[in-house]
C-alpha cells in the first residue's frame, strides 16, 4: 500500500533530478511549540527546533549537498558539535543539490526519536516506571508529532514558492487521547504512566507529578520547582519540552545540548524574599521571507544567514551581564533583563538606553531588514505565562502598526498595563523631555508632565479615548511644551507614519500616542 508520503515522494522523483534548490521547513502538528507558556517551555522548544534543524543540515552534508542557509562554518562539518549551532538553528533550510522530502523526513524522524527515547529512558530509569501503561501514547507522539514541508526549483525564489504551494497540501495525523486535558494548553491527554488505559486515576496522576517534580528538583519548594511543579498536568510533548532542559537528559541527546539554570529569572531573592521588576523582550526581523526572495544568488543568501547568526551570537555575549537570552538563532530572539547579586534591583531608566542600543546593534549588523520588538516591564507578581503572552501581543502590535517599531508595555501586578508603540527613530524623544524647571535627563521630574496630562484629561481639554469627536490641538501644544516645538511639528506632519494610523488626518491615534509616551515615560524614566 502506497502511503501519502510515498506518493508525494514519487511525484517529486523527476523534479529532484533537475532541481537546483531545495527548501525545507517543519512544524509540530498540534502547535505545541508556540503554545509554550513558561520561559523553560520556550527554551526547551528552541532546543528541540534547533536540534531537528541540525539533524537535517547534517544529513544534507552527508549527501554532499551545499547548505546555503543556515550558514555553517566549514570546521563545524560533519560533526558540527558546537553549542552555538545546536542551540541556534533556524528551521527553514535552503539547500543546493538533490535532497528529497524523504531525506528530510528521515533526518527529522531520527532526531525526534533520539529526543523521545532520551526522555522516556530517563523517566523509566529514575522513576522506575514500566513502559507498558503509556507505550502506545509515546509511540503515537514519536510518529505523528511533526510535519515536514519541502519545495524545489531552479531558482531560490521558485523553490520557496513551491514550498508555500506544497504547504497547502497537509499530510499529518493528530494523535487522539482519552481522559483529562493538559493544564497548560488544554490540548492532548495528561501524561502519566497508565494513560493508555480508559478512565483517569486522579491519585495516580497526583503521585506521578509529585515524584517527577521532586526528582528533577529535590531542593525546590512545593509548587515552586525549577522544572515541573506538583500541581501541573502536562501532555507528552509538553513534558518533553521540560525534560530536554534538564542537564542529564540534554547531554544524553547531544553532548552540547546543555541546559542552563533559570533560577535567577524567577525574580526572587532566596534570602530576603524580596522581588523585583524585570524586563522581557521578544523581537523579530521584518519580512524576512520577502527579503530572501530578493536575494537571487547563493552567496547573498549565505551572507545574510551568516550575518544573522553572527548578530545573534554577539547579542547573547553582550547581553550576559544584563540577563539571559533564551534564544537568538535566526531573525527572532527572546530574553529577560534582571539584576545580579550585586545590584538585584534593575534601574528602570536603563531600559530606554538598552532599547536604543539594541536598535543600533541591529543596524550595525547590516542585515538589510528592519526589526520589531515587544518589550514588557513586568511587576514581580505577574505569572510567567502572562508576561510571555504580553510579550507576544506587544511584538504583534509593533508589527501591525507598521513594523520597524518597538512596543513598550508596563505590566502591573494586578494585570493592568500602559503601553506605547513608536518607530525606533522616535524612541529617543523620551530623553529630550524637560520639566517645568527646564531640567532634562536624569534630573527631569516626570511628575510634572504626568500630573498636567491627568488634569487636562479630567477637564476634557484632552478628550478621552471614548469621545466621538476629537480635537488634537491641545494635546499637540501640550506635547510641545515638554518635548519641544520641533518634535511637535514633526509629530503633526508625520502623524500617519509615527502612530501607524490608517487615516493621516485622524486625531485619536495621535492623542493616544502622546498619552502612551507620557505614561510609559513616567513609569520608566522617573528619577523617583
Question: What does this molecule look like?
Answer:
45% of the residues lie in helices and 12% in strands. With 528 residues, the chain is α+β, with helices and mostly antiparallel strands. The protein folds into three domains: 21-257, Alpha-Beta Plaits (2-Layer Sandwich), CATH 3.30.70; 278-430, Reverse transcriptase/Diguanylate cyclase domain (Alpha-Beta Plaits); 432-527, no CATH class. Strands 6-7-5-8-9-10 form a six-stranded mixed beta sheet, sandwiched between helices. InterPro entries: Cas10-Cmr2_palm2, Cmr2_N, CRISPR-assoc_Cmr2_N, GGDEF_dom, Nucleotide_cyclase, Rev_trsase/Diguanyl_cyclase. Residues 276-411 form the GGDEF domain. This is GGDEF domain-containing protein.
Short recap of the structure:
With 528 residues, this protein is α+β, with helices and mostly antiparallel strands. The chain contains 18 helices and 10 strands. Helices cover 45% and strands 12% of the residues.
Index terms:
single chain, 528 residues, alpha+beta, 6-stranded mixed beta sheet, 4-stranded antiparallel beta sheet, globular, 45% helix, 18 helices, Alpha-Beta Plaits, GGDEF domain-containing protein, nucleotide-binding
Overall, the morphology is globular
| Percentage of β-strand residues | 5-15%
CATH superfamily of the largest domain: CRISPR-Cas system, Cmr2 subunit, D1 domain, cysteine cluster
Helix content: 40-55%
Radius of gyration: 26 Å
Total tally of structural domains: 3
N-end to C-end Cα span: 73 Å
Tell me, what is the CATH class of the largest domain? Answer: Alpha Beta
- Largest sheet: number of strands, sense, barrel closure: 6 strands, mixed
Number of continuous helical runs:
18
- Unreliable sequence segments: 74-81, 181-187
- Would you identify the CATH architecture of the largest domain? 2-Layer Sandwich
Structural class: alpha+beta
Q: Biggest sheet, strands in spatial order?
A: 6-7-5-8-9-10
CATH fold topology of the largest domain: Alpha-Beta Plaits
What is the count of β-strands? 10
Helix-strand string: HEHEHEHHEHHHHEHHEEHEHEEHHHHH
From the structure provided, what is the oligomeric state, counting identical versus distinct chains? Answer: single chain
Mean pLDDT: 86
Pfam family, one: Cas10-Cmr2_palm2
GO biological process, one term: defense response to virus
Keywords: Antiviral defense, Nucleotide-binding
InterPro entries: Cas10-Cmr2_palm2 (IPR054767), Cmr2_N (IPR038242), CRISPR-assoc_Cmr2_N (IPR024615), GGDEF_dom (IPR000160), Nucleotide_cyclase (IPR029787), Rev_trsase/Diguanyl_cyclase (IPR043128)
Amino acid at each position: 500500500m502506497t502511503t501519502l508520503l510515498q506518493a508525494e515522494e514519487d511525484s517529486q522523483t523527476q523534479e529532484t533530478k533537475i532541481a537546483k534548490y531545495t527548501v525545507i521547513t517543519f512544524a509540530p502538528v498540534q502547535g505545541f511549540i508556540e503554545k509554550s507558556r513558561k520561559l523553560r517551555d520556550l527554551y526547551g522548544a528552541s532546543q528541540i527546533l534547533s536540534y531537528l534543524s541540525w539533524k537535517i543540515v547534517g544529513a544534507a552534508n552527508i549527501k554532499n549537498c551545499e547548505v546555503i542557509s543556515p550558514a555553517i562554518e566549514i570546521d563545524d562539518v560533519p560533526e558540527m558539535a558546537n553549542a552555538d549551532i545546536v542551540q541556534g538553528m533556524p528551521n527553514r533550510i535552503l539547500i543546493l543539490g538533490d535532497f528529497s522530502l524523504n531525506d528530510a523526513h528521515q533526518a527529522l524522524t531520527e532526531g525526534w526519536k533520539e529526543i523521545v527515547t532520551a526522555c522516556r529512558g530517563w523517566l523509566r530509569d529514575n522513576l522506575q516506571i514500566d513502559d507498558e501503561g503509556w507505550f502506545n501514547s509515546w509511540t503515537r507522539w514519536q510518529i505523528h508529532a511533526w510535519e515536514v514541508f519541502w519545495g524545489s526549483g531552479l531558482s531560490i525564489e521558485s523553490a520557496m514558492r513551491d514550498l508555500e504551494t506544497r504547504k497547502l497540501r497537509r499530510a499529518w495525523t493528530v494523535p487522539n487521547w482519552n481522559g483529562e486535558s493538559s493544564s497548560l494548553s488544554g490540548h492532548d491527554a495528561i501524561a502519566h504512566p497508565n494513560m493508555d488505559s480508559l478512565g483517569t486515576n486522579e491519585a495516580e496522576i497526583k503521585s506521578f507529578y509529585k515524584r517527577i517534580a521532586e526528582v528533577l528538583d529535590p531542593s525546590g519548594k512545593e509548587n515552586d520547582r525549577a522544572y515541573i511543579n506538583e500541581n501541573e498536568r502536562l501532555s507528552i510533548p509538553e513534558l518533553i519540552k521540560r525534560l530536554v532542559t534538564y542537564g542529564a537528559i540534554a547531554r544524553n541527546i547531544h553532548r552540547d545540548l546543555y541546559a542552563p539554570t533559570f533560577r535567577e529569572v524567577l525574580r526572587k531573592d532566596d534570602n530576603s524574599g524580596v522581588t523585583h521588576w524585570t524586563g522581557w523582550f521578544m523581537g523579530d526581523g521584518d519580512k524576512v521571507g520577502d527579503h530572501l526572495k530578493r536575494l537571487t544568488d547563493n552567496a547573498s543568501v549565505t551572507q545574510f544567514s551568516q550575518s544573522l547568526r553572527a548578530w545573534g551570537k554577539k547579542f547573547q555575549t553582550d547581553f550576559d551581564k544584563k540577563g539571559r537570552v533564551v534564544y537568538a538563532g535566526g531573525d527572532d530572539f527572546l530574553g529577560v533583563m534582571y539584576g545580579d547579586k550585586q545590584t538585584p534591583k534593575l534601574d528602570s531608566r536603563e531600559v530606554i538606553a538598552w532599547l536604543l542600543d539594541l536598535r543600533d546593534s541591529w543596524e550595525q549588523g547590516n542585515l538589510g531588514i528592519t526589526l520589531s520588538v515587544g518589550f514588557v516591564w513586568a511587576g514581580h507578581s505577574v505569572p510567567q505565562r502572562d508576561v510571555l503572552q504580553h510579550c507576544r501581543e506587544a511584538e504583534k502590535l509593533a508589527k501591525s502598526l507598521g513594523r520597524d517599531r518597538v512596543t513598550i508595555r508596563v505590566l502591573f501586578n494586578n494585570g493592568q498595563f500602559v503601553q506605547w508603540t513608536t518607530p525606533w527613530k522616535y524612541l529617543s524623544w523620551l530623553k529630550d523631555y524637560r520639566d517645568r524647571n527646564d531640567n532634562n535627563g536624569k534630573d527631569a521630574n516626570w511628575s510634572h508632565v504626568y500630573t498636567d496630562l491627568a488634569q487636562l484629561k479630567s477637564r476634557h481639554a484632552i478628550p478621552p479615548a471614548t469621545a466621538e469627536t476629537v480635537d488634537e490641538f491641545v494635546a499637540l501644544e501640550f506635547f510641545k511644551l515638554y518635548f519641544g516645538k520641533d518634535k511637535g511639528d514633526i509629530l503633526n506632519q508625520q502623524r500617519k507614519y509615527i502612530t501607524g494610523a490608517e487615516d493621516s488626518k485622524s486625531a485619536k491615534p495621535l492623542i493616544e500616542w502622546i498619552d502612551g509616551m507620557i505614561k510609559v515615560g513616567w513609569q520608566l524614566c522617573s528619577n523617583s
